[in-house]
Amino acid sequence: MSIKAKQTRPISLRLRLVVLAVLLLTISLGLVGFALDAAFHRSSEAGLRARMESLVYLVLAATEVGDDGSLMFDENPGDPRLDQPGSGVYASVTGDNDHWTSDSSLGISLPDPVPIPTGESDFLPASDETGFFYTYRCGVSWELPQDRLLPVTVSILVDPQELQPELRAFRKGLWQSLGLTGIILVLAQLVLLALGLRPLRRITEDISGIESGKLNRLEGNFPKELEPLQRNLNHLLNTEQANQVRYRNALDSLAHSLKTPLSVIRSSLQSDGSAKTVAIENAVADMQRLIATRLQRAAASSRSSNAPAVEVKTQLERLVLSLKRVYSQELINIDVMIDPDLEFFGEQRDFLELTGNLLDNGCKYGKGQVRLSAQTIDAGEPRAGIRLQVDDNGPGIAEDQREQLLQRGVRGDERVEGHGLGLAIVLEIVRAYQGDITITESDLGGARVSVTLLTR
Amino acid sequence: MRILLVEDDNDLQASLAEILRGAGYAVDVSGDGIEGLFFGQEYPLDLAIIDLGLPGLPGLDLIRKLREHERRFPILILTARADWQDKVEGLEAGADDYLTKPFHPEELKARVSALLRRSAGHAQPVIELGPLKIDLVSQRVYNGKQEIDLTTYEYKVFEYLLMHPDAVVTKTVLSEHIYEEDADRDSNVIEVFVGRLRRKIDPQGLLNPIETLRGRGYRLSNPPRAT
What we know:
The complex is a heterodimer.
Chain A (H helix, E strand, L loop, with lengths): L2 H5 L5 H50 E3 L5 E3 L15 E6 L4 E3 L19 E4 L9 E11 L3 E11 L5 H48 L15 H42 L6 H27 L8 E2 H15 L6 E6 L4 E2 L3 H18 L3 E8 L8 E8 L6 H13 L8 H13 L4 E5 L5 E8 L2
Parallel strand pairs in A: 9-11
Antiparallel strand pairs in A: 1-2, 3-4, 3-7, 5-6, 6-7, 8-10, 11-12, 12-14, 13-14
Chain B lengths: L1 E5 L3 H13 L3 E5 L2 H10 L4 E5 L7 H10 L6 E5 L4 H10 L3 E4 L4 H16 L5 E4 L2 E4 L4 E4 L2 E3 L3 H12 L4 E2 L1 H8 L8 H15 L8 E4 L3 E4 L4 E2 L1
Parallel strand pairs in B: 1-2, 1-3, 3-4, 4-5
Antiparallel strand pairs in B: 6-7, 6-13, 7-8, 8-9, 10-12, 11-12
């Protein structure tokens, strides 16, 4: 993969879905939490208000007003928190010319009480105006002699700290349960993802199976959403295979259409040995060699990755039968020493071409004895490739000619004498399979050609 | 010897036919597989040369059909496809040899001669018959060191008899195998050829290799031996 592709590679589906799910969960659970928190806050304030209202009545009950409008109090208004300094609950009563505050306000600076009209009451949340106390005020009138009315305002102030333990406990419970819910939902999401993405993982595995040649097409049963992908991919594979066949057929017909006119040229030549005839003859031979080697190279390089395995022994037996038919008058003995289970994971056409040419050379240049053996390169990995040796009992190839013969074949721009076109084609195939080829002396007396073909 | 050539390229067909006729064979030609099959089934042939890329009926199918119909003459495949895969398929279909285009005319003649020889059971290209030596490749006949000068038709008759030793060969069969389908045949001419041939190869009348079986035909006895 190139660096550029790495940089622009999109985030994985799994990460994408997990991140989105976590974000969504956080936001929605957060909103739920805040709504619940606010609702609880309101309801605890409502409870506080009710409690403060009843405190007002307690304070009123403990209040006595003198005829002059002075305020007097029972020592005990009925709630111990009013007596205890700094308890957080304070009461004040304000008349026309007198003012009382509960003992609990000792050392606490309460805001100045604001009187409200008789018969009205209000509840003020803790704010700047109220000196950060919850305030409940109630306006009443006290009947004095001579039909005088004394307007009195009873205020209850509660430190917001009073609500805190309750709120804290609620919040703790709330966020704990929301957090737990969140974790459960994220885990559930992961499980869903794993289940949901499993067909994708399977399709990926199948595709790598196709790449390695184990599968021909996507055969599995995939969910409906993946069906178009499967269908299109199989279609693509079919098209590719069809294209390969077409390509090969095109090469074949090219060969056919070029070789027939070449045959016409050759068969029309007078065999008089004149310079002109020889020149034309050489040109035709060059064209013949170019067609054979170049077409072989093109066909070999178009080898498909998913060719079925070639049963080496079966194919070689076919070949040997054919060769025996061709060389039937020459009493040739071809020994095949091959494990019947040996398989070649390349193109059958290439395999037949390679072994056909090597055996044909063996039959042509040997003196009736040819031996072929083959093994797998790596016993642990049968797909790695095979090694082949073809021996004959002919005159062999002189040491100084071997390298030259192989070099020429590779260059492909000179006529290869002796072993002819066959070896040039063999070299093309060996190169297409990234193998190597060596010529040595055989224990049969002639040449031994050893070839490896890599199919991994 | 009579050869069927099935090749769809007109130029190649014409020049190959010329080469083969020049080599002393009777040649029937066809440009497509269906006609080729008809000729192959109906004509008394000694060999067929079949191109694989044929219109009508592909060469491989043509070969299979001929073999199914018990036609046993040798078949030489001409193919532009040099692949061993194709060669193996062709040989498995029933052909006896293949020749890859473009080929040398000499190569074609050598293969044809070798196939004819093989089918007659001669392993070597030179046959000995008493003091006579017959080189089937160069088509020359020697008596000791002395070359005997035979005309094309005399050689054709001799060659056919050599390829069918000990068999009774009628004049009709001889004329069928040395003439092409549309030639004018006259069995009296065969008698003339055989008469001249006898005088040339056995001037003293000591050997008498060609017997006449009255009313039936000729037989080459004193079986030829390979050298």
